Amino acid sequence: MKKIEAIIRKSKFTEVKEALQNVEVNFFSYWDVTGVGNEKEGHVYRGINYSTSEIQRRYLSIVVNEEFVQKTIDAIINSAATDKVGDGKIFVLPVEEAYRIRTGEKGGQSLN
Known about the structure:
Elements: E1 2-9, H1 13-22, E2 29-36, E3 43-45, E4 48-50, E5 54-64, H2 69-80, E6 88-94
Antiparallel strand pairs: 1-5, 1-6, 2-5, 3-4
């Protein structure tokens, strides 16, 4: 099992959620987060300078069995990309064990 953590633009969340559902990843958690990015310049919109060093993003936490890892990553990349700075990051971490609280199932079975 792997844990996939993704930080994406909030504006792309609906597209990412639909892309994940299309590859049968139907359960994940998410949070609204603020991060500090590499971009140091602000953007001017209607004459007002906005700082882009602190960025509003959505953080997704997804645990999947091994056979879903690549298609989950591909779904996120294909649906979240805008080809602009600040599209986000994906991290993949090992998961030692998972349990379903209701039934006590463990391992990959608990993710179904």
